[in-house]
Amino acid sequence: MDIRNPTLFRDPPSVVLLDLDDTLYEYAPAHEAGLAAAAALAKEALNVSTRDFHSNLDDAKVEIKMRLGKVASAHNRLIYFQRTIERMGFSTQPVLSLQMEQAYWSAFLDAATLFDEAIEFLDDLRIAGIPTIIVTDLSTHIQFRKIIYFGLDRYVHWVVTSEEVGLDKPVAANFELALAKLGGVEGPVWMVGESAAKDIGGARAAISAVGIQKRHAGVKIEGEGPDAPDALFDHFREVRRLLRDSVA
Amino acid sequence: MALDRPFSGWGIGERSAFALGLVVRLGLLIGVPVTYGDWFLPFLAHAGAAATLDPWTGFLSGGGDPMAFPYGPIYLLVFLPATWLGGLLSPRAAAVGLGLTILLLDFLLFAAVRRLVGTKQRSFCVYAYWLSPIVIYVNYWHGQLDALPVLILSLALLMLRRNQFTGAGLTLGLAGAAKMSMAVAVPFVWIYVTAARRLRSHAARLIVATLAGLATMLPFILSDGFQRMVLRTPEREKVFSLVIPFGGLDIYVMPLVLAALVFTAWRIRRFNFDVLFSIVGIGFFVLVLLTPASPGWGLWLVPFLAVHICRAGSMGRLAGFAFAALFVIFHVLTSTGSVWPIAAAGFDASPRLLNMALSLYLAAGGMVAMQILQDGLLRNPFYRATRSPLAIAIAGDSGAGKDTLADALHGLFGRSTTALLSGDDYHSWDRINPMWRSLTHLNPKANDLRRFNADILALKSGRPVEVPHYDHKVGRMTKPHSIGTADVVICSGLHALYSPDANAAFDLRIFLSMDEELRQFLKLRRDVRDRGHSVEAVRASMARRQADSIRYIRPQADAADVMLSLVPRNRRALAEPMSRNGPVAMSLHVQGAISAEFEALGRVLASLCGAQVLPLGGESEKPGIAIVGDPSTADIAAAARRLVPHMSDYITMEPIWCSGLLGIMQLVVLDQLGQRLALRKAS
User: Fold this and answer.
1) Strand order across the B612-616 sheet
2) Smallest Cα–Cα separation from B202: which of B153, B177, B167?
3) How many Å apart are CA B470 and CA B477, to the nearest integer?
4) Is B608–A109 a contact, with Cβ atoms under 8 angstroms apart?
5) In Å, how far is B604's CA from the nearest CA of chain A?
């Protein structure tokens, strides 16, 4: 645990906001497994090589993100796969697009595992009576599926997705809606997330949250500036201890 | 991520314990254990310099001590490089090279044992293994090289757990080739793969691989020096130390007990990996406790002891640590090579003290072995759940899909491990018999239910049966055929849940039904349109059967643990049976005693399979869930991994998963069976 601003952790949080993807579970292996399943389906149904599938998918993603901007549907796998199939020279294939989306998410969830002691951290918060809110990009439907799959709904009180806000994090409305759902809050707000700009910087600018960044391979850490975290952790055990110490 | 920061998941206690263990090890490495210098180093120096495939003969002809290195080529391959390189600098550096090799093997063994322990108890492994007095004493004080064969054996067991049969066999053989005593595990592993039906098809591969691993020793057997130094060691005689005088001759106790254990393993037949691991561990305890063991032998017990300590409760942990401490105390008092610190202190142990130390060490060892037997075998959930075959009943009206479900379960549990008993084979008469004019098949009197029940109970008790067979094509009974013993017995039939006595024998009772309107729709469409019968005739036949269905078939639902019903999603689609083509969209209703039984299932289906799951349980119906969805086989396989990971020991290695609602039925059965086995374990 690397606590950069110890004074911010003297009091326990009044509420804890949490990012979902790549913060509570590791995203990369799950995403890879999902892509492999979708590529396998493309090969079986359309006789398209994995390489062609991936290159068309990459192009489709760029195209869709350019067109839609930073909104939840810009992450929608169904639209990615629809456009990928179209870019590969086929017309729109509704059945196959849906099958590919389901194959992707099923393999994704099958490969996804929560970080060690993430659940225990949420349980500590529950016992301490501290409300928790997941603030996440992406569409509500798939985020709810993930939350149910991991059993997070037993611990988390509220969920805010960028689909209901209209724009992805770091747009302030995401964090403001979270606190509004709670009916306002007095005292420190912790934001636990892995993204320096979206989670740490976004929540600090919007609601003056204390930024606690999850660190693992591929995560960008800012040394200073608006996106620099107030504390960094590698393992949820560390943030559990931080909570225990602040409550004590 | 694990590679970025190997200790990132470790708590402060674990880190400190690891650091302490490392400091102790390095400290002891610096004070050279006597055995290195006297025994192994001269031989390794000779082997490095001679650069021959047979250093044993050369060493002896040069006047070397025959006791210097009682090990074969695998030991030489592992221990030579660092020792020889060190020896180029100085004899002291050679000892350090040897010590560092042991440290590396010790660390790898620690990693292997951590993997053998389940994820939940893994964090305790640093105390059970890394701080184990036996491990530190044997490797760094007494200076034995047994970490190598124990590591190879542990790797073999890890591969076996992952069902890598060729690799496991080869590694097991190599462990035996490195150190003969490791071959104690071989009969148990062979029994594991041959006795368990679900693994049997891989047995030949594993056995051949084991023999290939053992055969790596063969070329060296021809060497005279190898024979003298490695094969004819005095250690071998220890096997025959404990005897019972018998009519002027002796009975060798240790081999006798070991043989009894092998026989016990053979009788168990239904194994999972945990049961095997416990039995192999007990085998090593028998070997070590019933012989005047050398200190190095203590290390053979360590993987089993450490896993036991990690998994055990406080009493088990206490006994485990007490045994480890007593083992070391006894050997410090008695063994050559490490007695020097005691002797230097001017301490001379009396025979009484030594006898006491021996007795206490054996008592603690016996206690640990008993605990492993109890926790690892007798209380093992799989062992307890599989003392008799699993029996599943599928009852329901004709056309409800009993055979389809039975077949789907057959593909799940494996063709070679499952016996299918069909109620159709117990119809009392051939089709042309005039009795059918007065009775329908649904009437219990039209079936030989007494024989059906007797056969169910026989199969459940593990006895083969001779069953008749009803040939639907010709409508006649054929000659009886035999159904052998099986791990899973699936009984499907119109009356599978009709007799209370047979019902008590089932581990899971399923009642399968189809919405009445849907059933009539499908039957009319098939019989009228496809088979050319008249609508009136089909309706009349249905009406005649319906009375019997209400009287004899539907009441069986009350005896069921779970009800599976197929219901049309849109009733308007059933209006025109003759003109409507294609499949009818259906949902699956799953109902049982309480809704909580289906909560986990519903969550997995909704999240992983993207299915719609709605609650059932109005005033007039049993609680449960209604499921709409079309999951693929991959979805169902992934859902099973999530929902019932503990059931993997029960299903075949290559299960045939179904898609759609049938796949969901497979999941329901596994989930229900898992819940019921858990209750059976608890009782």
Assistant:
1) B418-422, B488-493, B390-396, B508-514, B562-568, B586-592, B624-628, B612-616
2) B167
3) 4
4) yes
5) 6
Has residue B167 been placed in a domain? yes
In this prediction, residue A30 has a pLDDT band, given cuts at 50, 70 and 90, of very high
Cα B444 to Cα B172: distance, rounded to the nearest angstrom: 56
Strand order in the sheet with A15-18: A2-3, A231-233, A210-214, A189-193, A15-18, A132-136, A158-161
A234 in contact with chain B, both atoms CB, cutoff 8 A: yes
Q: Do A102 and B632 touch (CB under 8 A)?
A: yes
The residues near B394 (Cβ < 8 Å, ≥ 6 apart) are B402, B405, B406, B490, B491, B492, B493, B496, B510, B512
Q: Return the closest-CA partner of residue B179 out of B279, B74, B254.
A: B74
Could you tell me the CA-to-CA distances from A105 to A32, A94, A174, B562 in Å, in that order?
11, 17, 24, 30
A116 and chain B in contact, CB less than 8 A: yes
Q: How far is A172 from chain B (nearest CA, A)?
A: 29
pLDDT digits (tens, 9 = 90+) for B441-500: 888 888 889 999 999 999 998 889 998 888 877 777 788 888 988 889 999 999 999 999
B363 min Cα distance to partner chain A (Å) = 40
- Convert the pLDDT of each residue in B290-345 to its tens digit: 998 888 899 999 999 999 999 988 888 999 999 999 999 998 888 765 545 555 56
d(CA B286, CA B270): 22
Cα–Cα nearest to A169, from A3, A18, A11, A62: A18
Mean pLDDT for chain A?
94
Give first-to-last CA distance, chain B, whole Å.
43
Handedness of CA A8, A9, A13, A18 (dihedral sign): positive
CB B460 within 8 A of CB B421: no
Give the span between the Cα atoms of B245 and A100, in whole angstroms.
Answer: 75
Query: Mind listing the pLDDT tens digit for each residue in B396-443?
Result: 998 888 999 999 999 999 988 899 999 888 887 777 777 777 778 888
Q: For chain A, what percent of residues have pLDDT higher than 70?
A: 100
CA distance B410 to B660: 17
- Residue B310 in domain: yes
Q: By the 8 A CB rule, do B288 and B300 touch?
A: yes
Q: Quote the mean pLDDT of chain B.
A: 88
Cβ atoms A61, A81 nearer than 8 A: no
Query: Contact at 8 Å (CB) between A71 and A166?
Result: yes
Give the model's confidence band at B241: pLDDT under 50 very low, under 70 low, under 90 confident, else very high: confident
Question: CB neighbours of B415 closer than 8 A, spacing ≥ 6?
Answer: B652
Strand A158-161 with B465-471, pairing: unpaired
> Which tokens in the block code for residue A226?
């608006």
Query: Which of 3.40.50.1000, 3.40.120.10, 3.40.50.1100, 3.40.50.620 is the CATH number of A2-26+113-247?
Result: 3.40.50.1000
Give the domain range for residue B359: 12-383
Those residues whose C-beta lies under 8 Å from the C-beta of residue B276, and which sit 6 or more positions away, are B160, B188, B189, B192
Query: How remote is the C-alpha of A161 from its chain's centroid?
Result: 10
Is A177 part of the contact surface with chain B (CB cutoff 8 Å)? no
Which residues of chain A make contact with B11, given a CB cutoff of 8 A?
Answer: 237
Q: Distance between CA atoms of B229 and B70, rounded to whole angstroms?
A: 5
Q: Cβ contacts (< 8 Å) between A145 and chain B: which residues?
A: 606-608, 610
Q: How many domains does chain B have?
A: 1
Is the model's pLDDT at B1 over the cut of 50?
Answer: no
Helix (H, G, I), strand (E, B) or coil at B258: helix
> Between chains, do A237 and B11 touch, taking CB under 8 Å as contact?
yes
| Per-domain boundaries in chain A | 2-26+113-247, 28-111
Q: Quick check: B518 and B411 in contact, CB under 8 A?
A: no
